[in-house]
């Protein structure tokens, strides 16, 4: 049975009606802030970083922000405007010649509707969908695909070379998004590969976005990755990171479906995205997104 059958109905689509709100020269690239519709009543803001001096279309990477219970942060952290400098991978990839896109996930930064803009609204977003037979994950995956729709229509982007990179929450989405959208041909999951079967503990639990009723009764992340088309996957994990629990076991499982398109980088770290870990991730993306 396909994992899609557990997600419930897909969100409604509409004309994205993209508008550019600002353009800032950041030295090696221009950072645009764009806004577009992901549904009839929902508009999302994202940063798009475009390197200077492109000779033609280049690879692009969707950069998914972390969770860290920082609901006031999202896209701004991955482009280096706020938060942890080690999370500024959309900025670093743009400096290396990739076009990058970094939207806010639902419930984060500009999509956080709590009174102080920092409260946890994701359990509300989940529960109101579940009672209607929907899932929050279906919305999250739909939103990613709409962002890719924008990327692949841009003249600077080679639509045949699309990657995905995320840490923590973003690392989890790096395992689901390529199964949902085959345009992603290289994906890096950093410190977010814990399978469902290792998540039934008080120190981890299940994140709201990944509550998919009935799925884990007979399935797990290996079954999600098995739905990848031609995508290559790097599982980047911290040996002392609880959100990387089961990394080697998961890798062994996904190798059965991906073969040498799957790689594992096990680091002697906790729940972090160090310079060395990022360098390994960037090399993987550069190699797997290289022109053939």
TrEMBL record:
<dbReference type="InterPro" id="IPR029058">
    <property type="entry name" value="AB_hydrolase_fold"/>
</dbReference>
<dbReference type="InterPro" id="IPR050261">
    <property type="entry name" value="FrsA_esterase"/>
</dbReference>
<feature type="domain" description="Dienelactone hydrolase">
    <location>
        <begin position="77"/>
        <end position="217"/>
    </location>
</feature>
<dbReference type="GO" id="GO:0016787">
    <property type="term" value="F:hydrolase activity"/>
</dbReference>
<dbReference type="InterPro" id="IPR002925">
    <property type="entry name" value="Dienelactn_hydro"/>
</dbReference>
<protein>
    <submittedName>
        <fullName>Prolyl oligopeptidase family protein</fullName>
    </submittedName>
</protein>
<comment type="similarity">
    <text>Belongs to the AB hydrolase superfamily.</text>
</comment>
<dbReference type="Pfam" id="PF01738">
    <property type="entry name" value="DLH"/>
</dbReference>
């Amino acid at each position: 049975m396909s994992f899609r059958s557990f997600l419930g109905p897909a969100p409604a689509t509409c004309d994205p009606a993209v508008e550019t709100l600002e353009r800032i020269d950041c030295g090696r690239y221009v950072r645009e802030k764009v806004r577009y519709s992901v549904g009839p009543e929902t508009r999302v803001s994202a940063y798009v970083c475009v390197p200077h001096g492109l000779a033609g279309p280049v690879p692009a990477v969707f950069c998914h922000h972390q969770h860290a219970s920082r609901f006031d942060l999202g896209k701004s952290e991955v482009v280096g405007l706020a938060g942890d400098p080690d999370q500024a991978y959309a900025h670093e990839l743009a400096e290396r010649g990739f076009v990058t896109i970094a939207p806010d996930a639902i419930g984060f930064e500009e999509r956080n509707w709590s009174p102080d803009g920092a409260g946890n609204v994701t359990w509300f977003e989940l529960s109101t969908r579940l009672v209607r037979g929907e899932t929050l994950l279906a919305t999250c995956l739909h939103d990613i695909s709409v962002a890719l729709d924008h990327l692949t229509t841009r003249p600077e982007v080679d639509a045949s070379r699309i990657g995905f990179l995320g840490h923590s929450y973003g690392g989890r989405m790096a395992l689901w998004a390529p199964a949902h959208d085959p345009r992603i041909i290289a994906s890096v999951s950093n410190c977010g590969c814990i399978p469902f079967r290792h998540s039934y503990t008080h120190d981890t639990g299940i994140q709201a976005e990944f509550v998919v009723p009935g799925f884990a009764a007979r399935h797990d992340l290996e079954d999600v990755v098995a739905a990848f088309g031609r995508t290559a996957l790097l599982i980047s994990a911290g040996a002392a990171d609880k959100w990387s629990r089961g990394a080697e076991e998961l890798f062994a499982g996904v190798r059965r479906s991906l073969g040498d398109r799957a790689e594992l980088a096990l680091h002697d770290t906790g729940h972090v995205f160090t310079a060395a870990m990022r360098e390994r991730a960037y090399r993987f993306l550069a190699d797997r997104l290289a022109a053939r």
